[in-house]
Design goal:
The protein is of the alpha/beta class. Helices cover 62% and strands 9% of the residues. The chain has 2 domains: 2-341, Up-down Bundle (ABC transporter transmembrane region fold), CATH 1.20.1560; 359-569, P-loop containing nucleotide triphosphate hydrolases (Rossmann fold). It has helices at 2-17, 29-36, 43-58, 63-76, 80-128, 132-137, 140-148, 159-181, 183-230, 232-237, 241-293, 299-341, 398-405, 428-433, 449-453, 462-472, 498-512, 528-541, 566-569; strands spanning 359-367, 373-382, 387-391, 413-418, 421-422, 435-439, 516-520, 546-550, 562-565. Helix 1 (2-17) crosses helix 9 (183-230). The longest helix has 53 residues, at 241-293. The two termini are 67 Å apart.
């Protein structure tokens, strides 16, 4: 009991602290128009489904009035013939509503799923075009949560939105009929409606804040969960299960607490509205009873009045409940708006080149997010078909050099020239297609060995891949695997050794036939025998292309034409 009272006090404080606080960045009509762009191709179905919904809702509106006529005729005029005729008509209306409702729900279910799929597809495609810095700043679990938040927009493409316009129509229609039945009772009903409005308005001030927090905690929980599972090997190696469980529990508790607060507020609002509806029913029964005794109101009119007044109150409750749904929509719409407005990776230019491999860095300055300066006034050059060895201590900028060359980041100052063309003028996709990279940081998909090898050349048949592996003398690398090249390697290649991962990366590059090769510590996990073999492959198969080798192994010195020591340049 004490915890429940404390919870309600917390909710009350939230509602008052944020009473006059601006909760969201401004969401405009244009933002909703942007979302409705995804209805494109389904406009006619959406219109048909909405019209069907309107018809389904409107055909039942006369039923309370028909009920009034039937009861009054039966009670006061003993009109049994007319009574049974009206019963048949009402039954027919309900049967027609059943069929129309089924068709309408089918149309909206189909539309809702298709449109949300289009939205998620578009957001996913957009995110893949973001610069690498976006993924540095936002964990993958957080990004996944943002994609999943599109589900909160489902109400925009479901009967819920159309129902609000129907409810407005029903409100005024019911008000007209109520006034026609008895204007005094209608005035009493209207006097109670502002109380409904105030309760809803007061409740929403807290629900907005709690909903925003709940959605944020949900995304953070997803982020933490994904991070834990991605790092499960490290967690087990350091016996950190309890530590990570505590972190998960903290994220889960924050989400659960905000979810409880939201549901409590919704429950309070719902119960208050139900209680108010009950009070209204008692008042109507009292006032109607007086008029029925005085014969100024018939029993049929009373039943019709109750039915139409419930529609009047129901319209307000429906609009209020949709307003609650709207809070989630607005928060999610804000997130989606941020994604849609995020600047995509600048592909710099439109020039497509046939890469020769002449590289020049001219007075380049670079730092990550304006933090420690990695390069200052940095210059160097590589001639076509040269093999360059890049050395330096950790943090000297070896990998950063490659990222700049690939256009993953842009320098704050200076120029990078590829074959005497400014990198800003070159189509980066075209450039990257011609560059092969064997990196220490290798990402592999949870697929077979052979599918990972031919990731960049999926049209190659398996026999061709096998022949390449045999020709290179690397077939022994995967001999100890149960199904050899068809073995599934697990998430991120967890079933492979570090050396096997690097061989897959090398084979990927080999079948790509690049015009420029980069080896970034890509042979550090290989045994001496295999590394010697890789050196031979580089000498024999990549001898006519520009090559950058980042390594600490002096074994490659004999095949390197020129060395660049980043420690001495800085």
């Amino acid at each position: 009991m004490k915890s429940m009272i404390k919870e309600f006090k917390n909710i009350y404080n939230v509602m008052n602290i944020h009473k006059n606080k601006k909760l969201y960045s401004e969401i405009t009509i244009k933002d909703f128009k942007d979302i409705f762009y995804f209805i494109k191709g389904y406009e006619h179905r959406f219109v048909v489904a909405s019209i069907m919904l309107i018809i389904t809702s409107l055909i039942v509106l006369p039923i309370p009035w028909l009920t009034k006529i039937a009861i009054d005729d039966l009670v006061y005029n003993n009109g049994t013939d007319r009574f049974f005729t009206i019963l048949i008509v009402i039954s027919g209306i309900y049967l027609l509503k059943l069929m129309l409702s089924f068709i309408t729900k089918y149309l909206f279910i189909h539309l809702n799923n298709r449109i949300l799929a289009n939205l998620q597809r578009s957001i996913f495609k957009k995110i893949l075009k973001f610069p690498l810095s976006y993924f540095d700043e936002n964990p993958s679990g957080y990004i996944l949560g943002r994609i999943q938040e599109t589900k909160n927009l489902s109400a925009l493409f479901s009967p819920s939105l159309t129902n609000q316009f129907i409810m407005i129509g029903e409100f005024f229609f019911s008000l007209f009929i109520l006034w026609h039945i008895n204007w005094q009772l209608t005035l009493i009903t209207i006097m109670i409606l502002p109380v409904y409005f105030y309760i809803i308005k007061f409740s929403l001030s807290g629900i907005k804040i709690v909903t925003k927090k709940m959605l944020e905690h949900n995304v953070l929980l997803l982020e933490k969960t994904q991070e834990i599972f991605s790092g499960i090997r490290t967690i087990k190696l350091f016996a950190s299960e309890k530590k990570e469980t505590d972190k998960f529990n903290n994220s889960l508790t924050a989400y659960v607490d905000s979810n409880i607060k939201q549901n409590l507020l919704l429950s309070v609002l719902t119960e208050l509205l139900i209680f108010l509806g009950s009070v209204l029913s008692v008042i109507m029964l009292w006032q109607s009873g007086i008029r029925i005794i005085a014969k100024t109101l018939t029993i049929g009119s009373y039943i019709a009045f109750i039915s139409y007044s419930s529609k009047l109150v129901g319209a307000i409750q429906s609009l209020a409940s949709f307003n609650l749904t709207l809070q989630s929509i607005v928060v999610s719409l804000k997130r989606i708006k941020q994604i849609m407005e995020y600047v995509e990776e600048d592909n710099r230019g439109e020039k497509k080149i046939r890469l020769e491999g002449n590289i020049s860095f001219n007075n380049v300055d670079f730092s990550y997010n304006n933090s420690r300066q990695i390069f200052r006034n940095f210059s160097f050059s590589i001639n076509s078909q040269e093999r360059i060895g890049v050395f330096g201590s950790n943090g000297s900028g070896k990998t950063t050099l490659i990222k700049l060359l690939l256009g993953l980041y842009a320098p704050q100052k200076g120029q990078i020239l590829i074959d005497n063309i400014n990198l800003t003028d070159i189509d980066l996709s075209n450039l990257r297609e011609q560059i092969g990279i064997v990196s220490q940081d290798i990402f592999l998909f949870n697929d077979s060995v052979i599918n990972n090898i031919k990731y960049c050349q999926p049209d190659l048949i398996d026999s061709e891949i096998l022949k390449i592996i045999l020709d290179l003398g690397l077939n022994h690398i995967f001999d100890n695997m149960p199904k050899k090249l068809t073995s599934t390697i697990g998430e991120c290649g967890c079933k492979l050794s570090g050396g096997q991962k690097q061989i897959i990366a090398l084979l990927r590059v080999f079948i790509k036939k690049p015009k420029f090769l980069i080896i970034d510590e890509g042979t550090s996990n290989l045994d001496v025998k295999t590394e010697v073999k890789i050196k031979e492959i580089i000498m024999n198969y990549f001898k006519n292309i520009t090559t950058i080798i980042i390594t600490h192994n002096s074994m490659y010195d004999e095949i390197i034409d020129k060395k660049i020591n980043l420690d001495k340049i800085q």
